[in-house]
Structure formats: C-alpha cells, structure tokens
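Hi P.,

Sorry for the delay on this. The queue was packed all week, but I finally got your sequence through. Input first:
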Amino acid sequence: MLKEKLNIDGCLKCSYCNTVCPVLKVRPDYPGPKKLGSDIERFRREGLSFGEDWVDYCLGCGQCSLVCPNQVGVSEYIAEAKAHQKKSGIKKIRDYVFARPALLGKMSTMTAPVSNSVFKMASALMPIGGITSRRTFPSYASKALRGSGVSKHETDERKQILLFPGCFIKYNDPGLGETAIKILERASYLVEIAHTGCCGLPATADKKESLTDAKSNILAMEDSVTRGSRVVTLCTSCGYTLKSKYTKLFPDNDRLGKQADMIASNTYDLGELMVELLEEGKLKLPMNTPPLKLAYHTPCHLKAQGIGRPWFKILKGIPGLEVVDLDAGCCGMSGTYGFRQEKYDISMRIGENLFNAINENKPNQVVTECATCRMQIEHGTQYKALHPVEFFAKILRQ
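Then the structure:
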C-alpha cells in the first residue's frame, strides 16, 4: 500500500498525460487522465464516487502512463475505476459480450458462415444492443487456428517459439497466424501454437474475467516457457498485456506472480524478434522489391511496450520501398470502443488525422500491426491495411 500511495503522490500535476490523451483532443469536456487518474483516485479509495461516467470513455491506450515523468500508473487507476463501475440494462449485456471475444469467437467459428450472414443481416438492429450499425463486424473463419501438436518433450535442436495467437488471429484471421509460422520456420524455429484464450485486455472493466483469463493463460504457457520457448505475439494489445499487465495481477500468489514475470520477460512482438534474427543473419531481407510506397501506422499498444518500432525498421531496410511514417496519433478504434454506439463519433474524430495522412500520401499499401487499427483504417479510408508480416511474406514470394 505504501508503494501505491507514493505512486499517487508522485503526480506533479504537470498535465503531460493530458497532452497525449486522444479523447481529450476531440472532446474538450472530457476530464482527462490527470483528473480521472491520480487526482481523484484518493477519493475513490475512500469509497467516494467521482468520474464514473467519464472513465468509461478512456481508450485504454496507455499513453498517459508512458509519458508520466514520475511513472505514475495513470492508466491503471482509470482501469481500476472502470472495474468498479455498476452498469445495467442493455449496456451491461453488450459489455459482458465484448469482454469475452474468445467466447464469441468459439461460437461464431462453429457456425460460420451462418454466423457471418447473421451479423450482416442484423446490422440494422445493432443500435438496440448499444452497437453502432455503421460498422461491419469482421468475418469469422470456419476453422480456428489450432495447436500444432508439438510434444511437451520435443527434443528438436531448433529453438522453440510459442505463438500466442490472440482472439482475432485465432477466430477471424488464422491465415495471418499461418503466414507468421512460415516466416518463423524459415528462420529455423519450431513453432507451437499456445492453447490459450483471450489475453484479458477486453475484460479490463470486468476484473473477475480478466483475472480468470490471465490465470488460465499463465498456466497454459508456463511449461513451454520453463523449457525455454519464447512467447511471440502478432497483436500489439496481446503483447502489451502479457508484458505489462499480468505481472501486477497476482500480488498475493507467489507462484502465479513468478510465472507471470517469467512469461513477461520471454514475450516478444514478432517484429521485435525478427529484428534480432536479421541482426544475427538468420533471416534475409528481400532484395528485388519493385518500387512501392508504403504507409506505416504505429499502434498505441506498441508504443506502450517501449520497444521502438521494429517493423518500421525492417521495412525501411528493404531496397525499393519508400516507407512513410504516418505519425498521426491514435486511430481511435481501441478494440470494441469504436463499435459502441455512444462512442462511434468520438472514435472517428480521433481517427481523422490518420485518415487524412493516408489519403494525402496516396500509398500503394498501408501496414500496421494492430487488427482493430486495420479495421479502423479500412473503415475510414478506401485503403486496405495489412499486418507487416503479410506484406513481408508477399514480397518474399515475388
């Protein structure tokens, strides 16, 4: 408790956190992270209710904590306040479902393509459930990405990778996971697909569910990681959660806490690992790429990991490519945030800078690591967006 108190008292009232808040930039009436975070966290700890309606509008991008000069966990305080919100009616039902993408994914893949047709036909009715009808739900694959069947006692001399697929790749885009596996196998890795569920980030406001997700995933991965496997993520939000969130969830459970620390220190974004492979000469860049203009968007949860922009570095090193750093801030999607009826307009206003930057640059291709960033880009522009590894694999085949 002393450490937490000191963390709150470390707030200098400098307002750096407010300067990077995407919501505050488009909604001047939004109190901002300084007020919703450490300013009124003390009152919340005394059982007094402050800012409950507004905390729900936080994107959870983590930029406020990232820029704090005293490392105050501003975003963590807001997330904690979200977890104590009391919701009712249709929003409670909607948010219950949105907090469980793995459950929705399992059900939808079992019945695809019927479920995909239902989502399309039901779009006009979505507002009744608090979901905007102006979005298109991503299609579900008929077969989810499944484990590779690598033995727990595998003795292959190659280094092992434990691919954490996340919900989107597992249920919506298994082809992206397969592409990543081929690239890793090309670098002589043996890849096992983790038998994990949702990372738990969508359930931030549902503390019991997020703890259940985290515990289940830690237990599912501990054996492989103990044996030396590296955990690799393709989703920046999953990577951010495994690296930064799990280590704080089990202060009273020594075993889970240590396992969470071990998983966090052995988790890599795919691009992060590929930079290492290129530097070691285990992977070669394509050399005969036709002249192309590429627009790169940096996801917020990649910035929050503090690892730089590995895919931007990789793509910049490929001869023939002109890689434009869009540097246009948050896309505004933030998982299911942009699907919620009351937040759709805010989401699109936040994304305007990004949409304008893409349209002004007129690239041949847009790339970004985050699946919901790709959804937002395709929704707000006429451009299709790819994960960088998809583009990388595509030019390797040329």
